[in-house]
């Protein structure tokens, strides 16, 4: 028996789990060998699941929606509390962009395909714009403040620590804060066939990430140090405020999350980001 977990530093629960041995012990008692596949870009998660390189993983809200719309066999397992990360849609302080509607004809840099695609869809919809009214520029999942500045765009969709790094490089202004756009949850999901064949192991994985979040909430200094050594960069001092204000916790998929995710899926389809409409609840593990 074994379980292979995909982990990247943009998902704290799996990143903590992969680095704290004591948190892995309960999972080993159920699943046997526990293996981790580490990578920097969370957007790789769906591909790794479908290939069978990993059994379970975690991302933001967008990747599982895209996977389901592409008729890939993925199953939701759990979700996190909302993450109101400092930042959001940000512009230079003297920019003429004052409202979301002012994004028309402008450019914005973010990690395309991450949760930020969902956030931009909400912003564009709220402003009454078309998706093509805004020019999208992709930056890596591990982009630092200098990478956002170097993108040469009119605006950025950026959160800590890159947001603080960007603010250290140039004066900025937040047009729409993260929590004004999306709840920004982490989503835990798995290869559908594996989940159906290994229900006990899938449940034990959820229990493990719940425990990892609980551990993180009471070990902020250790988590900050762990992240500072990851590809996300930033010092432990920069990570401190973001972790202190973080809403820790992972729980079962519930109706509130399903409504949020369905709204996101509908927007992404309407804007042509995904190839077909989906019913999100169809990808939920049996409860």
From TrEMBL:
InterPro entries the UniProt entry points to: SsuA/THI5
Superkingdom of source: Bacteria
Xref: Gene3D superfamilies: Periplasmic binding protein-like II
Residues spanning the membrane: none
Domain SsuA/THI5-like: 33-215
Database matches in PANTHER family: ALIPHATIC SULFONATES-BINDING PROTEIN-RELATED
Protein name: Sulfonate transport system substrate-binding protein
